[in-house]
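Question (not urgent): is this output format expected?
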Amino acid sequence: MKIAAISTSTPVSSVALADGRRVVATAENHNPRGHAGFVVAALEFCIQNAQWSPEEIEAVVVDVGPGLYTGIRVGVSVAQGIGASIGAQLAAAGSLDALALRATTGHRRIFAVVDVRRGEVVVAGYRPVPGGVMRDYPVELTTAERFLAMLSVQREKILLVGDVQALGRGAVTGLGGVRVGRPRYPTAEALAEAGAGLLERGEAPHPDAVRPRYLRDPDVNINWERLRSPFRWDDSP
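Got this back:
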């Protein structure tokens, strides 16, 4: 299956194309305010590099968060626009899952962290298993102070990935058994891998049913009809 993946939930936006589980093209941009101008152009660039036509895309995997409100809205609206334009399936993947999937450890428990501003973070816990990770601590909206307090009483080795800087400078210093690793931000490549599994299991909702995962009320009310991507891809010159 030919898959396009979109990640826009953090300051780094990225897109990827994958043929099954093999990534064939990627593009990335670090600009917390540049998601809207980047995603469609990056997809077109990747499609050209992969020598695909837009109509060959069978599914789109989109990062539904948690993360930045505006970035997530951009990714979801573009994904829905592609689905409406060329009839591609949609799969919704999470930023925390994508972070944990790329964490490099074989024995440490993994905690993924996403900065959602206003002094809060979203976290989730995972254990490495053959072929990937398994979530064993639910997705939770919390403060840096509460999360650090929870880590301080853990009795096992932990790898922190994601935007650990949001916890404060030197926040994990002195926490025995806690190590900081990569990645800092989720990538479209990891989303493509996670999405391939969802699609293989038939977990592809109707495109209109895909919604951001904010975990708290957004700063503004969202008019989804106005935000829906109006573009249509066209191969004609």
